[in-house]
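Note to self: keep these together.
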Amino acid sequence: MNLNTNFIAGASTHVVGGSLFGRSAEVRFTPHAYDWNYGDGGTQTTSVAGARWDALGLREFSPTSTSHVYGSEGSFSTSVTVRYGAEYRVGGGAWIPVSGEVSSAATSTVVIVQSADTVLAARDCTAGRTAPGC
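Structure:
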C-alpha cells in the first residue's frame, strides 16, 4: 500500500499466416496502446507494455510508465486490454496498413494489497525489549 506497483503486459508484434486464392497471405499485428484497469477505479492508457524495474535501471518501487499506487488495502481485479494496429501482405509483397485497430483483453489478475509497518531500532528487538523502538 502507498508504493508503486509495477505492471507489465506480455504483448508483442506477431504475424498470422495462411493462404488466399492459392497465394501466401500474412497479417501482422503490432501493439500500439495498452489500456490498464487497476481495479480500484484507477485507469491509464500507455504506449508501452512496461518492463521490470531492473531492466529499466530503476530501484524497486520506483514509478514507471505503467505503475500504480494503491491507497488502501484489499483485493483488486486488474486487467489490461491491448490495442493492435494491423497490416497485411499477399505473396511476400509489401505490408499494407489496415485502418482501425483490434483489441485483445488479457485475463484479469487479482492483486492483494497489504500494508506493513517498519521500525528502526538500535539493536535486535527479539533479544530484549530495551532497545529504542521495541
